[in-house]
Amino acid sequence: MILSEQMLLLARQAKAAARQLARLSTADKNAALLAMAEALEKERGGILEANALDLADGTSHGLASAMLDRLRLDDRRLSLMANGLREVASLPDPVGRVLDERVRPNGLKLQKVTSPIGVIVIIFESRPNVTADAAGLCFKSGNATILRGGKEALRSNEAVARVMTNALKRRFPHLPEHAIQVVLTPDRDAIKELLALTGYVTCASRGGGEGLIRAVAECSRVPVIKHYKGVCHVYVDGSADLKMAEEIVINAKCQRPGVCNAMETLLVDKAIAPVFLPAIARKLTALKVELRVDDTARELLRNHFPHLKSALEEDWYAEYLDLILAVRVVDDIEAAIDHISRYGSAHSDCIVTRDGPRARKFLAEVDSAAVYWNASTRFTDGGEFGMGAEIGISTDKIGARGPMGLEELTTYKWLGFGNGQIRT
Questions:
Q1: Domain segments of the chain: what residues?
Q2: Cα distances (angstroms) measured from residue 79 to each of 46, 84, 346
Q3: Given the DSSP bridges, would you call strands 309-310 and 180-182 parallel, antiparallel or unpaired?
Q4: pLDDT tier at 332 (50, 70, 90 boundaries)?
Q5: Between β-strands 203-206 and 119-123, what pairing exists: parallel, antiparallel or unpaired?
Q6: Alpha carbon 359 to chain centroid distance?
């Protein structure tokens, strides 16, 4: 079967499944999710074997350490995937909620009611846990999903999806068989073929490197919900609690550097830079973080770190996804906000301060999907937001923004209840 026919078959099957999913009861959806979670834990051996093969291939092909970390599955991550499905099952059903209700003077009753989007294509790289997270969220919100992971995770993604769909078939043969499908070819043209099927595919969500995201957005004929990159900032204000600031900076950069909500640029108020910078630089370099600093920071650190790299203009735009950090000393909060406005990616940014008015200024003027006061950027995540899981972080300003959980995977329609009204 040629590629275009393969993609058309997947899309047709998904659209048929979406019609069935839209009328499933909450009880059926929740029971199916719990069965999938149980299967992931019981059949973890096969999933981990597939993942080990992907990791071996990735290592032999020189995959970066951050990418290998995103690719790696272990017992803990599998348990988190299963528990994510259980948490999604425990959440309220997002479908069928009445958002608005009104009765017109002629007696026509109108309701604005949440409904599934339809068929969602999820395109992502490296992280096999996305297969379970995205499939679970789409299933609960009544959407059929087609998952296209990177070729480096092909075996892992197929194994995860197979376990979930087999659990669905065994326990609930009446439920739609093709609610969750995986594109099994590494051919990149599969994406182009799939995203041209406007009669079947409703929208796509894309995660991964900036170049690939832009390529998908440019070739797609269906709407693409996206974020290009996560250039996240922490600004340490002159009135910050410096111990708190150290803990937030280290967590935001080092807890898991290969993810989109990790800090990439540290901004420090010049008022506290002579004290704060040497202290935080010692701790970061001890944790193997490479610092790329502006001239002011270099001058403050030269006695302690004479061989620091200078930050270039491109460093302020960089999403490193690694233990590398750009550092700039700024005059004040205005300069910090100006820097974020110019170089940021509208993902996640933080101010550390004890000054309430400055914090509120930062929260109001930094135009990002998530803005924090005295908390790590690492919290921009569906699980941490109580969504159970997410299919990605949207930095779009129209439609979904931030972590995309259940509610963001629904649309709405208007229902009209009349008794013979006609328009005159």
A1: 3-227+392-417, 232-379
A2: 14, 8, 31
A3: unpaired
A4: very high
A5: parallel
A6: 26
Least confident among 202-206, 229-233, 356-360:
202-206
Give the integer Cα–Cα distance in Å for 84 and 89: 9
Q: Residue 113 phi/psi, 5° resolution?
A: -125, 135
- pLDDT at residue 212, as a whole number: 60
Query: Token pair for residue 28?
Result: 């059926």
Secondary structure element (H or E) that encloses residue 47, with its range: helix 44-60
CA dist 176 and 96 (Å) reads 20
The CATH number given to 232-379 is 3.40.309.10
Phi and psi, residue 266, nearest 5°? -105, 125
Nearest to 298 by CA among 288, 310, 286: 310
Type of residue numbered 8:
L
Alpha-carbon torsion, ordered 278, 284, 290, 296, to 10 deg: -20
Residue the block writes with tokens 């409703």: 202
Q: Which CATH architecture has domain 3-227+392-417?
A: 3-Layer(aba) Sandwich (3.40)
User: What are phi and psi for residue 187, nearest 5 degrees?
Assistant: -60, 120
Q: Please identify which residue in the block is written with the tokens 């439609």.
A: 399
